[in-house]
Design a protein that fits this description.
This protein is 33% helix and 16% strand. With 305 residues, the protein is an alpha/beta fold. β9, α6 (165-174) and β10 (179-182) form a beta-alpha-beta unit. The radius of gyration is 18 Å and the shape is globular.
C-alpha cells in the first residue's frame, strides 16, 4: 500500500503569508502573493481549485491508496471542504484540521470544535508563525495534551534550520507520547539539517518527505540528492521513522505526480522492504490506515507501449 503522507487539496485559495500578505487566485493555476503573480499550481487547474477528485485521479493512475491532507495558511483554511472530501471519497484521505494559531487565545476552542467535527489531526504551519507565535506557547499546550491523550496526530512544518526545534522539544518533553509528523523532510537541503531530523528520536515522531522533489528541483529527476537525504535519514533515525509525500499540487508546477513517486519506487539504493515502509507502511502505522483487501497498481502508460 502506498500512502502520500503530505499533500493538499482546496476548494478555492484565500490565503495569507505570515498573517500579513494576502494570497489570492487569478486563473489557470496562477496566484497573486501580495503584488507578485506566479504559477502556484498546474495551469490546468483553470479556476485555481485543487479539488479532491483531481488528486484521487492521480492516486488511481499512480497506484496510491490514500493521501494525508495537510493545510497551509498560504491556501487559506479548508476545514469544511476536507470533511466533505472524506465523505465523498471514503478511505482515500486522512485530513488535518487547521485552527487560526495567530488567534492564540481562541485556538484551544477552535481546535476542540475541529475535534468535535471528527478531525483526528491538526496541522501547524509553524514556519509562517516564526517570530509571532511560539508552538510551545502555554495557551496552546492544552491542545497538545488533548491530542496526546486521544492519539491524534500533529503535523508541523518548521522553519528551515533549528529555529523552532527547541519549541518542539519542549512540547515533547511535556507530552512524550504525542504523535508528530515533521514536514518537508525537515528541510533537508537547507541550513541546519539534520537538526529537525533528530526530533524523530522521540518515540512517536516521524519525518515525512512532502516536497522532496521541490527541495531538489534544481537537479531534476531522478533526484539523486533526495535519495541521498533518505539514506542519511535512514541511517540517523531508522527507515521505520520516515515517510514519502508528494506535496501535490504545488510541486507539480515542475514535475509530474508520478515522478514524485517513481524516483523512490525505481531506486536501486533501497530494498523492497525499505520501500514498503517508506512509501506507505510507516504512514499507515502512524495514521491508523488499514491495508486494503487488494493492492492498488499503477496504470500502464501509453508511452511505455
Amino acid at each position: 500500500m502506498i500512502v502520500d503522507a503530505h499533500m493538499h487539496i482546496w476548494n478555492q485559495v484565500h490565503g495569507m503569508i505570515g498573517n500579513k500578505t494576502p494570497v489570492t487566485p487569478v486563473e489557470k493555476g496562477r496566484i497573486r502573493i501580495g503584488d507578485q503573480e506566479m504559477l502556484g499550481m498546474p495551469a490546468y487547474l483553470l479556476d485555481c481549485g485543487a479539488r479532491a477528485e483531481f488528486v484521487v485521479a492521480e492516486f488511481d493512475a499512480a497506484g496510491v491508496e490514500c493521501g494525508v491532507v495537510v493545510q497551509e495558511y498560504l491556501d487559506g483554511e479548508q476545514n469544511d471542504y476536507l470533511l466533505e472530501a472524506v465523505d465523498r471519497f471514503p478511505g482515500r484521505f486522512f485530513v488535518h484540521g487547521l485552527p487560526n494559531f495567530f488567534d492564540t487565545d481562541n485556538a484551544k476552542n477552535e481546535a476542540k470544535a475541529l475535534f468535535d467535527c471528527g478531525y483526528r489531526g491538526l496541522k501547524v504551519p509553524a514556519s509562517h508563525m516564526l517570530g509571532q507565535v511560539r508552538v510551545d506557547d502555554r495557551r496552546l499546550m492544552p491542545i497538545w495534551e488533548r491530542m496526546e491523550t486521544s492519539g491524534f496526530v500533529l503535523a508541523v512544518d518548521l522553519s528551515e534550520g533549528e529555529d523552532q526545534v527547541q519549541e518542539m522539544e519542549n512540547i515533547l518533553e511535556a507530552f512524550p507520547k504525542l504523535k508528530v509528523a515533521i514536514g518537508h523532510f525537515g528541510m533537508s537541503n537547507r541550513r541546519g539539517w539534520p537538526g529537525q531530523l533528530h526530533l524523530a528520536h522521540h518515540e512517536n515522531v516521524y519525518v515525512e518527505g512532502g516536497g522532496l522533489v521541490w527541495l531538489y528541483r534544481d537537479e531534476g529527476y531522478p533526484f539523486d540528492g533526495a535519495i541521498a537525504a533518505i539514506l542519511k535519514a535512514k541511517a540517523e533515525v531508522g527507515i521505520e521513522k520516515i515517510m514519502w509525500g508528494s506535496d501535490w499540487p504545488r510541486t507539480m508546477v515542475d514535475f509530474t505526480y508520478r515522478q514524485s513517486l517513481e524516483f523512490v519506487r525505481t531506486s536501486t539504493l533501497l530494498n523492497e522492504e525499505e520501500k514498503r515502509l517508506f512509501l506507505g507502511g510507516n504512514a499507515a502505522r502512524l495514521y491508523g490506515i488499514e491495508e486494503p483487501a487488494e493492492e492498488r497498481s499503477p496504470i500502464p502508460l501509453i508511452t511505455e507501449g
